[in-house]
């Protein structure tokens, strides 16, 4: 029988446990969607909240595993060329059931021939994390876009909600000390996405994120830049 020390055993157990819980949450989200189709309109708010919380736990588990790998130098990207629209569609598909239950209209603005170099899984999950947060705080509309900007591929998610709070706008998203971990997972999600972006490099360029309240539809705007 193979012997494991604590340094090798814990990552294996953590990864296995996270994936197992994520599979269970995926089943739960599917059941929630089916339940929503059978319930009266006055019960949909509770079902939407249940779906959002399950999805939030799903993203938090993924972030936990990734941050553990980063902290223990076990994180590795698989960077290849992808159509930016495919990355957007994958992020949207992760949130599609919740967006439908919430009656949130999503508009996609992206050229079919726009290409980007990234780790498809991590970037689509990162955008899905931000979209999950946007659908909670938006009133009725979200715009997801991608275009070229100063030598980067820029992905943006805009909503028509109340915008980011001042403490997040003033924070260094790459510094966990600047973020409030107590009041919800918005700060954790942004830190996670900023960390993923920073691992994408091309010579002197490094990926990064920006947030502001300059959404074209009046709320928060998140932008992720990939070299």
TrEMBL record:
Q: What are the protein's UniProt keywords?
A: Kinase, Transferase
* One Pfam family, short name: HATPase_c
Q: What range(s) does the Histidine kinase domain occupy?
A: 16-227
Annotated coiled-coil positions are none
- What is a GO molecular function of this protein? phosphorelay sensor kinase activity
- What domain of life? Bacteria
Q: Give Gene Ontology CC terms.
A: plasma membrane
Q: Which SUPFAM superfamilies match?
A: ATPase domain of HSP90 chaperone/DNA topoisomerase II/histidine kinase (SSF55874)
The name on file for this protein is: Histidine kinase
């Amino acid at each position: 029988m193979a012997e494991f020390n604590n340094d090798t055993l814990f990552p294996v157990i953590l990864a296995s446990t996270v994936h197992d819980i994520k599979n269970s949450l995926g089943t739960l989200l599917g059941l929630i969607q089916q339940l929503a189709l059978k319930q009266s309109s006055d019960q949909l708010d509770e079902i939407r909240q249940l779906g959002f919380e399950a999805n939030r736990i799903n993203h938090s588990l993924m972030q936990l595993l990734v941050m553990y790998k980063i902290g223990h130098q076990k994180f590795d990207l698989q960077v290849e060329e992808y159509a930016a629209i495919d990355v957007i569609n994958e992020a949207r598909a992760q949130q599609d059931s919740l967006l439908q239950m919430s009656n949130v209209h999503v508009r996609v603005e992206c050229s079919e021939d726009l290409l980007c170099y990234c780790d498809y899984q991590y970037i689509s999950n990162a955008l899905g994390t931000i979209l999950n947060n946007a659908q909670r705080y938006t009133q009725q509309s979200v715009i997801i876009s991608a275009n070229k900007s100063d030598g980067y591929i820029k992905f943006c998610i805009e909503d028509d909600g109340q915008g980011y709070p001042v403490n997040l706008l003033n924070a260094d998203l790459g510094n966990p000390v600047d973020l409030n971990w107590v009041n919800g997972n918005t700060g954790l999600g942004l830190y996670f996405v900023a960390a993923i972006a920073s691992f994408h490099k091309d010579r002197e360029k490094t990926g990064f994120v920006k947030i502001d309240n300059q959404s074209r539809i009046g709320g928060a705007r998140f932008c992720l830049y990939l070299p």
